Amino acid sequence: xxxxxPLQPLRxxxxxxxxxxxxxxxxxxxxxxxxxxxxxxxxxxxTDQQVLEIGPGPGGLTRxxxxxxxxxxxxxxxxxxxxxxxxxxxAFPDRLTVIExxxxxxxxxxxxxxPPHIVSNLPYNVGTPLLxxxxxxxxxxxxxxxxxxxxxxxxxxxxxxxxxxAYGRLAVLTQWRSDARIAMPVHRSxxxxxxxxxxxxxxxxxxxxxxxxxFRTLERLTATAFGQRRKMxxxxxxxxxxxxxxxxxxxxxxxxxxxxxxxxxFVALARALG
Length: 274
Ligand code: SAM
Description:
Blueprint: H1 10-17, E1 29-30, H2 33-41, E2 50-54, H3 60-67, E3 71-76, H4 82-91, E4 96-100, E5 117-121, H5 124-136, E6 145-151, H6 152-159, H7 169-175, E7 178-186, E8 191-192, E9 199-206, H8 215-227, H9 233-236, H10 243-249, H11 263-273
Helix pairs in contact: 2-3
The structure holds S-adenosylmethionine (SAM).
């Protein structure tokens, strides 16, 4: 979809609105239109699809999403960005709604009548709590897919498989009822200013939830099991009543360590613990 008025280059928008990057707001901007279009293509055809974007900043990714045909609702905490986003809203009439606020406090689910795709170059300091919040609600969730930029190390923890040092609570809480993959590595030099570490875009799509297990049970279980990840389960799960009996009832050797259990084994254990 083309804008009704020509868009100025992003660097000019930033200069005109005085949007110097704020470290405390996790501001690392993307300017490369081709890269942004590739990120916006990850969820699939966005024509007339609802999209939630967290942290649009000066609107680089927002533009790419609008040009891909999406209807975007964007939540931005930095008041300085709002006038630049208002210009974008004028260029794409009735396609962009901007909410000034803290994404950790806004009830995003209530903003949509149909499930949106979530697409965001997330502020690093709030990325993991936002994701865990989106993974914890009723299932199937209120969103269709998540396409999210993370620090590469966090992206690897989200998609990790057992027997890998990146495998832990975040992998299990993501993968027990979703598919998660790294869709694209992104070099630090793509950002202005460049962060210290590399990044990667993760794509997550929800599946049916296994029966008889709640997010909360699994969250507590994985926190305890991975809290002492080098210890045998019989030791690390001592605070969990009946843990050894539950492990034995589903054929898991209590001498194993948490990081050797598959996601399905964690689900079975959570179910056995009731
Ligand atoms: N989307 C832009 C891009 O790709 O160039 C900016 C991404 S920048 C990594 C993160 C953005 O999130 C910034 O604009 C920042 O102001 C915003 N932000 C930080 N914390 C936020 C919060 N709690 N809620 C909403 N937005 C936030």
